[in-house]
Amino acid sequence: MALNPYDLYDVHSLLSEEERAVQDTVARFTDERVLPIIGECFDEGRFPAELIPEIAGLGLLGATLPAEYGGSELNYVSYGLICQELERGDSGLRSFASVQSSLCMYPIFAYGTEEQKRRWLPDMAAGKVIGCFGLTEAHGGSDPANMKTHAKRDGDDWILNGSKMWITNGNLADIAIVWAQTDDGIQGFVVEKDFAGFKAQEIKHKMSLRASVTSALFFDGVRVPEANRLPNVKGLKGPLGCLTQARYGITWGPIGAAIACLDEALEYSKERILFGRPVAATQSAQIKMADWARRITGAQLLSLQLGRLKDAGKMQPTQVSLAKWNNCRMAIDIAREARDLLGGAGITTEHCPIRHALNLESVITYEGTETVHQLVVGRELTGINAFGG
């Protein structure tokens, strides 16, 4: 039997029946609803918000959370497969789901009160309330401990001042999970969009993640009730715990982007005739695509094992860093090389490699740059912290 060119090691056979059903469902949604419109959305710089009810209806928002809070109670391998299939459509769509699930619903679930969970999570799972995650600031995303945004206690409220930058979903969001310095360490707050002094400003002129909403957030004396503070975590442990959740999903997402690029290059190379034969018949094209399949296969196995470790409660942040570093590098290199194989046709958004290549410039940067993850692994190996050195 011929092997699946996008799954040479038959990773699909290592999945449970439920995991396969999840992947097949999201793959069908991507094929039928995302791919027909996403190139145009990218061209227009428009997030396809009309897909949010369908994404929610499939149970993809907060998919790992308990049903009592609107979740689908899926395991983390299933969540990874959701990310992979959404990013096969576009990194912007996976970013939307990652932020909603891992960076907004997760901290409310993990760090919030029972009242906060019941107030926000069911509506977030239903796509009725959209969240964004305010951690990064303009002067240095890789050093969150140095944040300038601060909150001061004022009676039963907190007064929030500062700003955040490069915030996915910012202008879509009904609530923002905002991390701020306080007299008692870094704390998280649920900031509602109609709070006085809170403003979101969409960032324009992007050449990456054009089918995604990216914003700056500004807080000018925003009064936040104590009831909106996430009470069950203090310090960097809070936001970093969220980032580990999101980075896990990001190890899977770029696999989808790489598969999309390989798929398009395979089809194009079979149809494109040069010097009397298809490009696919040339040694150079076959070597390139074989190498892509090798790298995709390694990434698939890496993320699957990472997911099994996470579901067993054994996953370590360094393992996430290794996979995020490897899989983002794998995908951006394949997207660039696929663009090259397509020649002049590769520079248009009628073909996906240039769009994925541009998007992956953001994916390889956010949630920890490649250098940050390399240094995390280096610290694990040597026991020496080289950050800031």
From TrEMBL:
Pfam families: Acyl-CoA_dh_1, Acyl-CoA_dh_M, Acyl-CoA_dh_N
Record keywords: FAD, Flavoprotein, Oxidoreductase, Transit peptide
Annotated pathway: Amino-acid metabolism; lysine degradation; Amino-acid metabolism; tryptophan metabolism
Top-level EC class: oxidoreductase
Domain Acyl-CoA dehydrogenase/oxidase N-terminal: 16-128
InterPro entries assigned to the protein according to its UniProt record, in alphabetical order: Acyl-CoA_DH_CS, Acyl-CoA_Oxase/DH_mid-dom, Acyl-CoA_Oxase/DH_mid-dom_sf, AcylCo_DH-like_C, AcylCo_DH/oxidase_C, AcylCoA_DH/ox_N, AcylCoA_DH/ox_N_sf, AcylCoA_DH/oxidase_NM_dom_sf
Keyword Zinc-finger included in the entry's annotation: no
E.C. number: 1.3.8.6
Catalytic activity: glutaryl-CoA + oxidized [electron-transfer flavoprotein] + 2 H(+) = (2E)-butenoyl-CoA + reduced [electron-transfer flavoprotein] + CO2
Residue ranges of domain Acyl-CoA oxidase/dehydrogenase middle in the record: 132-222
Domain of life (superkingdom): Bacteria
Cofactor(s), by name: FAD
SUPFAM superfamilies documented for this protein: Acyl-CoA dehydrogenase C-terminal domain-like, Acyl-CoA dehydrogenase NM domain-like
Domain Acyl-CoA dehydrogenase/oxidase C-terminal: 235-381
Recorded family membership: Belongs to the acyl-CoA dehydrogenase family.
Protein name per Swiss-Prot or TrEMBL: glutaryl-CoA dehydrogenase (ETF)
Name of the gene encoding the protein in the UniProt record: gcdH
